[in-house]
């Protein structure tokens, strides 16, 4: 990892430096665990009390929090974004594949391989695939026939990209992700399932990041589309013909049923389930463990997951839910009785 002085960091990140610019920084840490030579950040005011005891050599702060720390500090409008950019500068993550093509890779003669492409051991690239410049393909990856992978995209180990999938530039796919597998399409003929071949593709834009073991199914007829600047966490399921708008973030274990359309700049929490053939408008926020069964047409925050209770409370609540039908009938009967009594009084 390269070390930086505070002056260098301030210049690179456009921060306002207060303190000794010659201080050398070798690591980013939390306020609680920072030591000499470390830089920390404060992005949540509930951790403000940790400023007093932190051993960090410098802290990244907002203007509102700057007065609470007397040591070396970098003042920025958004400390969390500044931390993210500094983490990129100090990132020690290795390449998914070293430069060049490993001798165990199997590449069809008709595949097109760009300049400065790194292909690791046991990679298979099928006929007609197009790999652009500066792509990294990790060990054990499979690239299907006529698939296209854009410039600078990085695939970690055992990523499978099926036939005719198109992936844009500067994307990142974590290990074991599957892109372009068959959607769940079947017709039932007198109790027998008849498979429907999935004839669409998956089209992925630029700067899309997909977490480990996530599956993105190809379209049945039209394409499954993930627009640019979308981030998808681990172990998500994106069914056939789903479309996700640019700037949307999806947390882990979320599932999208077929033909769902998600707008731009949405935030979808973990373990959310979204029904098929519905749409979610731009800017919607869906909290974790929600079940979305109908369209969302107005931006806002939506929730349906039941917060945890003690087992005793949960059992009592479920008992009440089971009795709602009977309670509804009793209320209707009481309303009818009240109405008839009011009429008789008149």
As a percent range, the share of helical residues equals: 10-25%
The 3D shape can be described as: flat
- Which spans of ≥5 residues are poorly predicted at pLDDT below 50? none
End-to-end Cα distance: 88 Å
What's the total count of β strands?
Answer: 39
Q: What structural class do the secondary elements suggest? A: alpha/beta
Record the strand order, biggest sheet: 8-11-14-17-20-25-28-31-34-37-39
Number of helices: 4
| Biggest sheet character | 11 strands, parallel
Oligomer: single chain
* Average predicted confidence as pLDDT: 96
- Please give the radius of gyration in angstroms: 27 Å
> Beta-strand percentage?
25-35%
Description:
By secondary structure, the protein is an alpha/beta fold. Helices cover 15% and strands 27% of the residues. The strands form six sheets. An eleven-stranded parallel β-sheet has the order 8-11-14-17-20-25-28-31-34-37-39, with no helix packed on it. Strand 22 (186-189) and strand 23 form a beta hairpin. It is flat, with a radius of gyration of 27 Å. The relative contact order is 0.06.
């Amino acid at each position: 990892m390269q070390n930086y002085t505070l002056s260098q960091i301030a210049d690179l990140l456009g921060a306002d430096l207060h303190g000794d610019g010659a201080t050398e920084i070798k690591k980013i840490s939390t306020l609680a665990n920072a030591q000499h030579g470390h830089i920390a950040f404060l992005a949540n005011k509930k951790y403000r009390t940790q400023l007093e005891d932190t051993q960090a050599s410098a802290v990244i702060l907002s203007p509102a929090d700057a007065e609470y720390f007397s040591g070396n500090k970098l003042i920025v409008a958004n400390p969390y974004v500044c931390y993210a950019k500094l983490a990129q500068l100090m990132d020690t993550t290795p390449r998914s594949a070293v430069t060049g093509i490993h001798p165990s890779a199997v590449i069809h003669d008709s595949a097109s391989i760009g300049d400065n492409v790194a292909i690791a051991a046991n990679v298979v690239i099928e006929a007609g695939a197009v790999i652009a410049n500066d792509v990294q393909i990790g060990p054990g990856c499979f690239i299907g026939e006529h698939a296209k992978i854009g410039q600078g995209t990085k695939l970690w180990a055992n990523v499978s990209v099926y036939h005719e999938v198109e992936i844009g530039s500067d994307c990142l796919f974590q290990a074991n992700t599957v892109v372009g597998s068959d959607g769940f399409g079947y017709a039932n003929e007198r109790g027998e399932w008849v498979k429907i071949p999935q004839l669409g593709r998956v089209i992925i834009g630029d700067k899309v990041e997909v977490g480990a073991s996530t599956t993105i199914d190809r379209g049945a007829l039209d394409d499954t589309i993930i627009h640019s600047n979308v981030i998808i966490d681990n172990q998500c399921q994106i069914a056939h013909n789903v479309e996700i708008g640019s700037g949307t973030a999806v947390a882990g274990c979320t599932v999208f049923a077929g033909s769902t359309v998600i707008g731009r700049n949405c935030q979808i929490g973990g373990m959310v389930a979204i029904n098929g053939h519905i749409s979610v408008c731009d800017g919607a926020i869906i909290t974790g463990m929600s079940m979305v069964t109908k369209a969302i047409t107005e931006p806002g925050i939506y929730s349906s997951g039941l917060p945890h209770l003690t087992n005793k409370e949960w059992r009592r609540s479920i008992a009440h839910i089971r009795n709602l039908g009977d309670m509804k009938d009793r209320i209707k009967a009481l309303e009818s009785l009240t109405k008839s009594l009011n009429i008789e009084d008149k």
